[in-house]
Amino acid sequence: MKRTQQDLLPSDLSRQLSDLGYVLAQSRIARKIPQSEVAVRANISRNTVSRIENGDAGVAIGQILRYLSVVRPGATLSDVMGKKDHAVQAVKSLQRPRRARPLSNKELEEYDF
């Protein structure tokens, strides 16, 4: 029976790869870069980009680093996992629902018809 790289990894390492792929995908999406464009810039196939984002253990570390240099130039792997991405935070803050609050008396006076 053929065993994949994913089957050979302990579950905690497999989860870390999935987390890395998720963080990288969120960074790419926040910057509005399609997978096909990342593939061209990083000189990897679009299938490999998808595998990186899905946390595939069979992807070479060099390909992950080339992907990283396109999506987050100047960042290291430790930066990706340890620091928040400002682009992702900006997108999430725009999507966050805002609480509706009643208008103050001063605001009501301004909108008096």
TrEMBL record:
Indicate the segments forming the HTH cro/C1-type domain, all copies. Answer: 24-55
- Classify the source by domain of life: Bacteria
Q: Which GO terms describe its molecular function?
A: DNA binding
**Positions of the UniProt region annotated as Disordered:** 90-113
Q: Which Pfam families match?
A: HTH_31
- State where composition is biased (Basic and acidic residues): 104-113
This protein's name: Xre family transcriptional regulator
Give the source species.
Mangrovibacter plantisponsor
